[in-house]
Amino acid sequence: MTSIDLAVIPGDGIGPEVVAEGLKVLDAVCEALGGPEIATHTYDLGARRYLATGETLTDADLEDIKGRDAILLGAIGDPRVPSGVLERGLLLKLRFALDHYVNLRPNRHYPGVPTPLADSGGIDFLVVREGTEGLYCGNGGVVRQGTPHEIATEVSVNTAYGVERVVRYAFAKAQARPRKKLTYVHKHNVLVNAGGLWRRVVEEVGAEYPDVAVDYMHVDAATIFLVTDPARFDVIATDNLFGDILTDEAGAITGGIGLAASGNINPEKAFPSMFEPIHGSAPDIAGKQIADPTATIASVALMFDHLGLAEHARAIEDAIESDMAARASAAEAGAPLKRSTSDVGNAVAALVRG
Ligand code: IPM
Ligand code: MN
């Protein structure tokens, strides 16, 4: 790959600030490793555009974005916009239209990084969250709205095709990792239809991966084990909503949501994949240069990995690890680093340059 055509969607709140640092590190790594060339195309999408024009993501925007190699997104959401408008009309529309059926969310605890856990030993797991089905489909509606007889439904859609492809991806990931363990999380004691499908698919696909150890956990139990014994997890495969919830918890136990990266991936590369921090737009701290850009920077590493540039990904991951160590030793010495968003980006970019 000699050049990357990158769609950049800074978005709302702290989005533009963290994306600027992601791009800074991206430039640094391409410079340090002698390429590829990066051409960025910034899209005015999010609250500003919606409030000015009523548009969230037009067909023309989508067509344009489809022609890029990858997407870097900051965050979406603004208190001036009714809940759901940008989430459904922009973020989820991109995930669905670009068939991002894998929502990849790695979680690792770096030594010395503050965590609410008493024993954080060895947290290093990957959540493979399904990205195009489940309760996120927008399948449902409201009848008799505003009356005492209102009925609101959201129907979870799970297809054999959709579950199988994401489960297959999760098994392949598990097989490539040293511990070769896959935990699938659902609630098949209550959600017997969707849970039954997930269960059968995991059993069937699992038969093709005899070297991967499989276990099952109800989602409620998984929230407990993430706190009491997170080191037991290697790869977690789960549906869209369970994965959303578990990955916020995973962010919290590994040092905060400011460190948690994600990739919305179309593994076949039929469409550009989209990389974004898990956190939201945090309007309360927007413009203050206090957001941690690490999650966005780590998302850039996921992007390089997806594009087949493993060395670039590794260089960024190593730099983040060193920066985490610097934070930890400063905190230990009683003088925690006080850095702006851009200070953190500069520090990681400098580490990448070596
Ligand atoms: C996430 C976010 C989104 C989700 C929202 C903003 C639609 O919480 O990426 O985890 O629920 O997937
Ligand atoms: Mn979420």
TrEMBL record:
Provide the primary localization.
cytoplasm
**Which keywords, in A-to-Z order, does the entry hold?**
Amino-acid biosynthesis, Branched-chain amino acid biosynthesis, Cytoplasm, Leucine biosynthesis, Magnesium, Manganese, Metal-binding, NAD, Oxidoreductase
Provide the cofactor list for this protein: Mg(2+); Mn(2+)
Q: Where substrate is bound, by residue?
A: R95, R105, R129, D220
Pathway info: Amino-acid biosynthesis; L-leucine biosynthesis; L-leucine from 3-methyl-2-oxobutanoate: step 3/4
Q: Which Pfam families match?
A: Iso_dh (PF00180)
Task: Summarize where NAD(+) binds, as residue positions.
Answer: G280, S281, A282, P283, D284, I285, A286, G287, K288, Q289, I290, A291, D292
The record's comment on cofactor binding reads: Binds 1 Mg(2+) or Mn(2+) ion per subunit.
Matching PANTHER family:
D-MALATE DEHYDROGENASE [DECARBOXYLATING]
Q: Indicate what this protein is called per its UniProt record.
A: 3-isopropylmalate dehydrogenase
Q: Which organism is it from?
A: Peptidiphaga gingivicola
Starting at the broadest rank, the lineage of the source organism is:
Bacteria, Bacillati, Actinomycetota, Actinomycetes, Actinomycetales
Q: Which gene encodes it?
A: leuB
